[in-house]
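Quiz preparation item.
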């Protein structure tokens, strides 16, 4: 984070000390210089104690308040730092060191509006020193929060004139275009961000992920091609970023591109493994196994699930899907039951997992044992699934509870429509 004052060199601190001491005489001057020297030597606790004594002698000494605030900020006592730096600014509202330090504190605590107001004062008084891409973008962000998007856009434009690749300003500009629903300009600006090598891969991929999570079919119908190009650019620029590849996988799902989905899963696996991203690693394995199964490549599907469980034996989704597919093929029901039991132990209120376990028990003709799991599933969303309702109806029918079985069978048909 850019700061105005806190990266001062020792010599700068000492020189400032003499500026502040011009009007101080005798012992007080000596005590003040000694305290500043301690601050310069990063002896913050000792310096703070000295400045507190000086403040007790004269509560209106703005220089003492200023250095006391710097000590407190360095010691991470943010509340006290704000209080004393603000006090120094109240006494001398023209001192740019005071204003800059307080702006930095506000910036570090996320109080962007307060920081921006101080930045505006600094830019007006000394543009050569304070007018930079950071301050201009901060002011722009503050104006955007206030709803003044035109003024915000002006500040972002000034920031980008000074530093064309300054990503925060470009991001702010793209947000203005988004709010104005100027989507051609929005995607053009977003393309600049994605193509900026100084922007972290995670920031790019997360931003695109947010777009995809919040878009509707109409948005994708018009802008899907542009979005796809941005996703491809992220993957090309940052092949090691897992989320970029997951975004590509999501595009393939939207396009119903089966071969693309499977290829992306294969590509995600080594990248996620290298990144230690177990969640996306298991999602890729499980998805790949599911598609192999539905394509009739049962052996490859089961091999994929086995490999996945070697990586993470306690992944509930993989355990459940593998177990259910084995039950559909009528193979290794005891193994399937064991895996399914582990899945519901991990997520005891998951209706899908409860259905799998109950259905395997049904196939093993353990009807009484199966029923409680379906009753449990009904409480946690099972009534919304035609498959779960039909499975429960068959269990009830096997137990001779024909009226209840007919009810759930009818309910299953209605859900399937």
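Solution:
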């Amino acid at each position: 984070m850019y700061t105005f004052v806190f990266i001062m060199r020792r010599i700068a601190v000492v020189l400032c000390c003499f500026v502040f001491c011009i009007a101080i005489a005798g012992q007080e001057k000596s005590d003040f210089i000694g305290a500043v020297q301690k601050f310069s030597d990063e002896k913050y606790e000792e310096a703070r104690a000295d400045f507190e004594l000086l403040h007790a002698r004269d509560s209106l000494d703005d220089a003492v308040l200023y250095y006391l605030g710097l000590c407190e900020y360095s010691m991470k006592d943010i509340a006290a730092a704000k209080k004393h730096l603000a006090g120094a600014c109240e006494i001398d509202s023209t001192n740019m060191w005071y204003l800059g330090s307080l702006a930095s504190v506000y910036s570090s605590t996320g109080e962007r509006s307060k920081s921006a107001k101080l930045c505006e004062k600094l830019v007006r008084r000394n543009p050569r020193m304070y007018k930079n891409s950071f301050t201009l973008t901060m002011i722009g962000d503050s104006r955007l929060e206030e709803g003044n998007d035109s003024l915000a856009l002006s500040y972002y434009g000034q920031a980008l004139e000074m530093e064309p690749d300054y990503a925060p300003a470009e991001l702010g500009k793209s947000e203005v275009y988004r709010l104005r629903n100027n989507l051609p300009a929005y995607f053009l600006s977003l393309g600049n961000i994605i193509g900026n090598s100084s922007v972290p891969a995670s920031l790019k991929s997360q931003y695109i992920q947010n777009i995809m999570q919040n878009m509707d079919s109409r948005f994708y119908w018009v802008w899907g091609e542009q979005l796809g190009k941005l996703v491809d650019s992220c993957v090309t620029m940052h092949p090691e970023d897992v989320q970029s590849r997951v975004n590509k996988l999501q595009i393939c799902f939207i396009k119903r591109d089966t071969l693309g989905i499977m290829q992306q899963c294969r590509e995600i696996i080594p990248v996620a493994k290298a990144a230690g991203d177990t969640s996306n690693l298991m999602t890729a394995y499980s998805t790949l196994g599911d598609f192999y199964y539905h394509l009739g490549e049962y052996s490859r599907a089961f091999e994929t699930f086995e490999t996945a469980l070697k990586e993470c034996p306690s992944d509930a989704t993989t355990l459940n899907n593998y177990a259910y597919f084995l039950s559909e093929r009528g193979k290794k029901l005891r193994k399937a039951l064991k895996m399914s039991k582990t899945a519901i132990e991990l997520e005891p209120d998951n209706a899908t997992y409860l259905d799998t376990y109950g259905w395997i028990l049904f196939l093993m003709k353990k009807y009484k044992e199966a029923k409680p799991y379906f009753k449990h599933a009904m409480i946690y969303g099972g009534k919304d699934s035609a498959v779960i309702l039909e499975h429960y109806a068959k269990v009830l029918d096997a137990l001779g509870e024909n009226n209840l079985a007919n009810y759930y069978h009818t309910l299953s048909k209605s859900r399937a429509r």
